[in-house]
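Hi X.,

You mentioned you wanted examples for the new student's onboarding notes, showing what a folding record looks like when two proteins sit in one file. Here is a clean example. The first protein comes first, with its sequence line followed by its structure tokens.
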Amino acid sequence: MKKIFPILLLISLLFSCGENVSDKSPYPYAHLYEDLPFDMPRVEIPTFPDNRVSVADHGGKPDGITLNTKAFEDAMQALSDMGGGTLTVPKGIWFTGPIVFRSNINMHLEKGALILFSPDKDLYPLVETVFEGLDTRRCQSPISGRNLENIAITGEGSINGSGEAWRPLKKEKVPESHWKQVVSSGGVVKNGNYWFPSEGALKGQEMSDMNVPRQNMTEEEWLEIKDFLRPVMVSFIECKNVYLHGVLFENSPAWNIHPLMCENVIIDGIFARNPGYSQNGDGLDLESCKNSIIVNSLFDVGDDGICIKSGKDEQGRLRGRPTENVIVENCKVFQGHGGFVVGSEMSGGVKNISVKNCQFLGTDVGLRFKSNRGRGGVVENIYISDIYMFNIITDSFLFDLYYGGKSASEALADGDTTPTEEQLFEVTEETPVFRNIYVKDLVSRNARRAMFFNGLPEMNIENIHLENAFITARFGAKFSESKDIILNNVTVISEEGPAYLFNNVKNFKAEKLAYKVSESAKVAQITGNNTAEVHLSGLPEDLVDIASDVNKEQVIFK
């Protein structure tokens, strides 16, 4: 035993040293920076003082009935007075009004903890904020913080925003039994198919443009439509070092998570969830943020899943803060309007984005880039790879420069037609620009349409590369008002019509372009008198339909 004891002691010391070392574990996101095609500083996980305060220590009761607003506020303040630390939320249902963060605080939800926000709108006063890319007023967010440093929401618990009390509802989005139940609860119905929680909510919708009311309103007018001004659930504005990890965020009144003008944001292993019928039920809207990591997360929502924004129209351009330096990896998006989305509020610009190893399962669109005239802004240097999609309702890969506020599936159901105008508008600061976008290793099965690139005549979508793609769809890939498009090793299998359609496309080049179409269909169709330098090497010339307005010399088969 005397000889064995020193060995056991040594082993014990080695293990204890290992435990100490693990406190300084290697940087977990180092692999994300390997071969990153742009320079981006390392985003560190914020650290917090050892102080710990429980919401239960300040009179909180997790019984699902007691209103714990004061308990959260007192716990936050007490922890802040100590210099920060961890605010513990134990297991149970913590019913509460809004929670306002302080710097250097990690709100940690233990296993079994549920923060349930009250549906009582009187608890959420009107505040100055930003929504849909514009300065406006909304009700205070259930969770908010402004001009803070080192803040986190972590753990294994859940956060529920009681969104059903705030959101309007469209009849066609839910079963008849659900519709009858909601209508019978009160509120008001517009045109027999659009329910609002109150007359004020309906009035707010009728006097708004894309969910933002007109300005220069009196205080009385703002209060009259207060029910309409539903907040995003998590609003962090002008914050630095933001960390969300492990928590379920669900049932938000409007958008779910909205970091705005923040720097150094890490979102890892969260689940953002909203009903498929939820109006403006986005999962994540990252707006005018710099240096962000979004990984290992699930989004199952009623609008866009992972969405990149930077302000709207003149206000966004004047703000002049692009969303830049973003890494998205190993995320899944279910249902919703788009898997990975840029816009439509992108007026401050978007650049240096990497998206890898993601799945989009049953979304309206897979990769969705959207804007319209008036926005301005430049979207560039986007690098996307290893994207796998299944059952995409409309387009696997979409550029929509005529976005009008509807989801792609709503526009399809409403019979909206694709603009095919010849008019050239003047290029100004209001003209949106999409360029330098590189996509590779993409597989999509069972989409409605393989791709749709729909640019503006005066400002084509420019320099888009697609490599190693295999797409099956009802309809083929359509490219319109686009230039400098390069496809390499791309296969489109279309059930109906041509695999490839071109309208006013300039300098299109393809290598290893493959296809499969129905027996009676052409392989490709080319239209537009501005078509130029379309290289279709390898495609059979007799199976390409060239319209009479196209200069045939501009279509090259060699």
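Then the second protein repeats the pattern, sequence line and then tokens:
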Amino acid sequence: MVTLSRWKVVLVILSVVLGLLFALPNALPQSVRDGLPGFMPRQTLNLGLDLQGGSYLLLEVDTDALRSERLTNMVEDVRTTLREEQIAFADLGPVNGGVNVRIVDPGQVDAAARVLRNTIGSTIQGAVGGRDTTVQVLPGQTLRLTFIAEAFEAEAKRAVDQSIEIIRRRIDELGTREPTIQRQGSNRIVVAAAGESDPERLKEVLGKTAKLTFHLVDENADVAAAMAGRVPPGKMLMPGEGGQPPLVVDRRALVTGEMLTDAQPGFDQMKNEPIVSFRFNGLGTRRFGDATIRNVGRRFAIVLDNQYISAPSINEPITGGSGQISGSFTVESANDLALVLRAGALPTRLNVEEQRTVGAELGADAIAAGQISAIGAFVLVLAFMVVAYGFLFGGVSILALLVNGLLIIAAMSITQASLTLPGIAGLILTLAVAVDANVLIYERMREEMRAGRTVIAAIDAGFNRAMLTIFDANITHLGAALIMFSLGAGPVKGFAWTLAIGVFTSVFTAVLITQVILALWLRTTRPKFLPIQ
């Protein structure tokens, strides 16, 4: 164990050099880091919300709105299906969490039920009838359609997962580094964006559903009657943004924002106003082109989150698959709209349950307190090791401890894991217990020397026989860190991540670096006794 193997020396030197290389950017100002050559690392420790300051939001996915939207879509699907089958119906609409429809002809009730069972909803394995909806025949020639509970629960879960992914893409577009985005409970999402000091803008960007749709305008509809509640079947009253008068539009969308491939802010030189340019994918291009070919001369409404932004006329077929949205945009609002359109639409509305802002001054105070704590812990460990094992062996442990801290900083800079205040606590704990391995090794050496062993035999036994205990202790630490990381919230994750990195670096430095240094000492001095007897 104490032989000075070449691979051990190379590994120690390489780890120290790489540790210095990747930790160095943390000691350099931004101007110097920007001027470093391209092959040099520039990543620094990524400070979390509690250290850097930023915004915290607790969002709730509105599953009630999701259910309402599904019911609205089901009503339109039932209307379209029965019309295609030429089955007369009446009293179609949502009732108590389902959809009811009365079939006018008693002889067509069974045929209508059969058609709806085969067409409405989506296929799902294990469900009765193989679909996520059920169709019941009620008295009075009425059919009732409802979602099965398992299907809606699965859809609500997908909505939360999809919302998390879209939130992450939107925050990435904002330029916020390493945000914390986590599910809380069944339908809540925690967002902690370090460095984002404007929670209102963050709330505006994340909370915007960004459902973009294109609907034909019904020019013959009576808008006043629709505003009084008499909306024609298959139509809907659409309010306008910025005080524009409402319009009656087709409920069915020509094209949806899911078919967008890109959206960029721009500027209309003719009107001297900000705009948003967009482009469809292949399917969207074909659908939009076909719709504009059939409806030249009509208007279509560009609808964003249940408000139309503009309603231009179709002067000629639009087959290029691109267009632009104009309205009462500012430069910032055009940027934000393009951002959320690129990131994708949320499946349903997000409600802000809680918001907090952490100032940068509070983070600076926390960093200063953490530095004092880390220095204090290091001084206490240094004093203990020197008093207990002398300047040589205690100094070797302290040198290994310094390399340990260097490797932790380098590892966190490489992975860009956020360092939080609990993470600083994990770092201090790691430094405090990192010398445990050295204590186990040194105490075993003492026992061997008292038993009459030679210096080389005592050192060899110290490393050999303490190794199993060292591994056992650190494996339990690693297991606890993994459990905290997988089950804990943001601050707990920061503590667990620092602790997990510290487990690997502590074992490496306390065993391998100590062993190489002591092997060099043995080779150069050839001592007759150990200074820790």
